[in-house]
Design brief:
164 residues
Length: 164
């Protein structure tokens, strides 16, 4: 899947865990969007973000958590993660965008984007995703349209309004 070449800020171990788990949950229509491993030795924590077109349930989170436990227990490359606590959750309404594919999926949506460096005098973008190319994204703000190389995106989140 092309998604893995475009992930923001993930190390090799996180990407490997994500790929293995994605292969195992494919038939359940669940996708692992991101895996973060933080801490050291006995205080390690795994934060796994999953999505499902019909919505993520507690059962989906429990299933993925159990799969991760099994993957870690039976794969030597994850030996240092055996005591890791695992938290599996949905991405939420103002979810982080983890890949170029995520930007494509949310064309027309409002986002908040933090760039690694200033581009055309802009370091933070609050606007709408207009278009996504092979390696760049076009945003429209209240004042300008700006094209940003995907490699310059440090962090991006949807910016949806909740109306009550």
């Amino acid at each position: 899947m092309g998604l893995f070449c475009c992930l923001l800020q993930m190390n090799d171990l996180e990407i490997e865990l994500m790929q293995i788990v994605n292969d195992l949950v494919l038939n359940k229509n669940i996708s692992v969007l991101n895996a973060r491993i933080t801490g050291w030795k006995k205080s390690r924590k795994g934060e796994i973000i999953i999505e499902k077109n019909s919505g993520v349930t507690l059962d989906d989170c429990a299933l993925v958590s159990n799969i991760i436990d099994n993957v870690i227990s039976h794969n030597k490359i994850f030996e240092d993660l055996k005591d890791m606590s695992i938290e599996v959750s949905s991405p939420g309404i103002n979810r982080e965008l983890y890949s170029l594919d995520d930007f494509k999926k949310f064309i027309g949506e409002r986002v908040i984007v933090k760039l690694k460096r200033s581009i055309d005098g802009v370091k933070n973008i609050k606007g709408i995703i207009i278009d996504v190319g092979a390696s760049e994204i076009l945003f429209k703000t209240n004042k300008i349209e700006i094209t940003v190389p995907y490699s310059e995106v440090q962090k991006a989140n949807l910016n949806r309004e909740i109306k009550v």
